[in-house]
UniProtKB/TrEMBL annotation:
<dbReference type="Pfam" id="PF13508">
    <property type="entry name" value="Acetyltransf_7"/>
</dbReference>
<protein>
    <recommendedName>
        <fullName>N-acetyltransferase domain-containing protein</fullName>
    </recommendedName>
</protein>
<feature type="domain" description="N-acetyltransferase">
    <location>
        <begin position="1"/>
        <end position="126"/>
    </location>
</feature>
<dbReference type="InterPro" id="IPR000182">
    <property type="entry name" value="GNAT_dom"/>
</dbReference>
<dbReference type="InterPro" id="IPR016181">
    <property type="entry name" value="Acyl_CoA_acyltransferase"/>
</dbReference>
<dbReference type="GO" id="GO:0016747">
    <property type="term" value="F:acyltransferase activity, transferring groups other than amino-acyl groups"/>
</dbReference>
Length: 143
């Protein structure tokens, strides 16, 4: 996939994080970007909010807790660096259960981006709702 497919004009205004394993060299095994962006719920417009996008984990490293650890790190950064009290995302409907296990809840109607169905998800307690089920060994990438 060309880099132009994932670059957005607002990328320069975001915080970008990656998970790296010693044996994987300079290539990240997971990435996430966080932006200051109001949550699209009128009654929550007064809250300081952040949105995460471009969250991905290499399929060869999924199921090891790496994505959860990176999400937890991004949530803490949103809270401390961006002073966000709520964080949200557009999640593929097929992955919503994964986010729910990490304390997020769906809101609003589902919608499509091309052929893929999405749902918006949020958490209002950034530091408490993301729980790490297991630690990850940085050398092997295994829990």
């Amino acid at each position: 996939m060309p880099i132009s497919h994932v670059q957005l004009p607002e990328d320069a205004n975001g915080y970008h994080f990656g998970a790296f394993l010693e044996f994987n060299g300079d290539e990240p095994v997971a990435v996430i970007s966080v932006f200051v962006e109001a949550i699209p719920i009128p009654e929550h417009q007064h809250q300081a909010a952040a949105r995460f996008r471009k969250f991905a984990c290499d399929p060869r490293h999924q199921g090891r807790g790496i994505g959860t650890k990176l999400l937890q790190y991004a949530f803490r950064a949103a809270s401390t660096e961006l002073k966000a009290s709520v964080i949200w995302c557009d999640a593929r409907l097929s992955t919503s259960a994964w986010y729910e296990k990490r304390g997020m809840v769906p809101f609003g109607q589902t919608f499509f981006k091309g052929p893929v169905e999405y749902v918006r998800m949020k958490t209002e307690d950034i530091n408490q709702n993301v729980r790490l089920d297991r630690e990850v060994d940085p050398q092997t990438g295994r829990s």
